[in-house]
Amino acid sequence: MMVLETSKANAILTVLQGCNNLTRLKKIQAHVIVNGLQNHPAISNSILNFCAVSISGSLPYAQHLFKHILNPQTQAWNSIIRGFAQSPSPVQAIFYYNRMLFDSVSGPDTFTFSFTLKACERIKALKKCEEVHGSIIRTGYERDVVVCTGLVRCYGGNGCVEIARMVFDNMPERDLVAWNAMISCYSQAGYHQEALRIYDYMRNENVGVDGFTLVGLLSSCSHVGALNMGVKLHRIASEKGLLRNVFVGNALIDMYAKCGNLDGALEVFNGMPRDAFTWNSMIVGFGVHGFGDEAIYFFNQMLEAGVRPNSIAFLGLLCGCSHQGLVEEGVEFFHQMSSKFNVKPGIKHYGCMVDMYGRAGKLEKALEIIGDSPWQDDPVLWRILLSSSKIHKNVVIGEIAIRNLSQLGAVNAGDCVLLATIYAGANDEQGVARMRKLIKKQGIKTTPGWSWIEVSDQVHRFVVDDKSHPDSGMIYQKLEEVTHKATMAGYVEDKSQFIIHGSCSEECLESSSTYHSEKLAIAFGLAKTPEGTSLRIVKNLRVCRDCHEFTKFVSRAFNRDIIVRDRLRFHHFKGGLCSCRDYW
């Protein structure tokens, strides 16, 4: 009899391995019940696991099955916890974990902790993460590489990067998954230089890389403009045969585009399989660089390839049309979004339209777009209108924009600076004084400005009047030389440039001799790179008027291409000219 039951159980387990839909599973389950094997641990766990975890399963049915399991073992608990951890209701995974601790004789294992930590990460349950961490230590799993990797991800996902790093550093051994988790943790938290340093540690410990490593590192390269590092990663991807991996390819395109090398992006694009994200990356890449015609070309190629455009594709299109001044084309694409492709315009699309009309000098039309949009109460659109008013020195529209921002309680230092610049251009000293007074009265704080530049595979960060760099003395000496040569080439310092309380902002509110971060980055780049090398700088704020003029004449005086990515767009400086045509 025992042999017969074992034979039937094995046969059923074999059939379960090939099950691929819930209807068939229920038929197998009926056969199980008929043969009295419903309490067979391996069979009941297999059925439960399919319902809880498989894409063809059913979590409600898994819950129903779980209720009827007598004294569920750890494997059964793991199935139900895992199922909910990856479901739209991850909090249920934590409820089952709690039940397991209090109601079951079965204890948690590696997988229990891993699935529970995944749920904590998804719902940002830091306190529960800390509680689970305590249980991990008490049960002796604090040296388990899988569990520790889950802790790194969970703490990182909850914004506790330092604790995640502490867990990572205390791991007795680290596999590639653990290294990838730490890179992802830093990258997602915005600590991109730290993410790239992790790669240095990996190389020192002779740890290899895979597609996940490359995607994480390339994302950080994109954010800090680390093109040289990105090119090295591209070479590694090629050596490992990963260029046909669509995720790696998309990350490479994004990196090249954000580092200002569109030729590199195009080279990757031409040699890889493509999905919607691939096409979007090319369209957005050319769009933010101001190449509207090229963005339109790739959009049309995408349609010919049978890929349906989404909101991101249209965002790249509208951005390109705005920067290149293709107003008619931009308006047509904006209308096609909903009428032809059933894509609902979002606030960013309306923002592009306001910017497009604003750049073209059609400020009344830009104001009309805001009035017709569902986002009249969002400061973003009014801030874009204010920037357009600054370009065209339109006091009236600028005051309308600042008044609406004030009514929304959203006025910041940058807004006051922009209106003050408009007043200064109109020789309205009282207007400038009002902006100064508003900033002081309301205690509006500025956003500190910084610039990144990559030299010799290292990313260097500068802030206004920075003296922290080891080569600080040399940098300031070089900057004096650079300023002199730029002046000889025609640069005239903007004496009306303003600063607020001595800190660097997007523009300024009183004259200052401060050294803005991008000037320091340019001086360092010129001192440390061979003649003819392009300089690539990433800035967190909008480049100010004086720095923009300065960079134009530096590019002429030193015969260098200088690519600056600021908060709004890319600026390609060459021979004393900028790709933005002085409208930004």
TrEMBL record:
Keywords attached to this Swiss-Prot or TrEMBL record, sorted alphabetically, are:
Repeat
Per-repeat ranges for PPR? 175-209, 275-309
Q: Which GO terms describe its biological process?
A: RNA modification
Gene Ontology MF, one: mRNA binding
| Repeat recorded as keyword | yes
In terms of Pfam families, this protein maps to: DYW_deaminase, E_motif, Eplus_motif, PPR, PPR_2
User: Which InterPro entries does this one have?
Assistant: DYW_dom (IPR032867), E2_motif (IPR046849), E_motif (IPR046848), PPR_At4g14850-like_plant (IPR046960), PPR_rpt (IPR002885), TPR-like_helical_dom_sf (IPR011990)
Q: Which residues form the DYW domain?
A: 496-584
Q: Is the keyword Repeat in the record?
A: yes
For this protein, the record's NCBIfam families field holds: PPR
- Name of the protein in its database record: DYW domain-containing protein
Q: What is the lineage of its organism?
A: Eukaryota, Viridiplantae, Streptophyta, Embryophyta, Tracheophyta
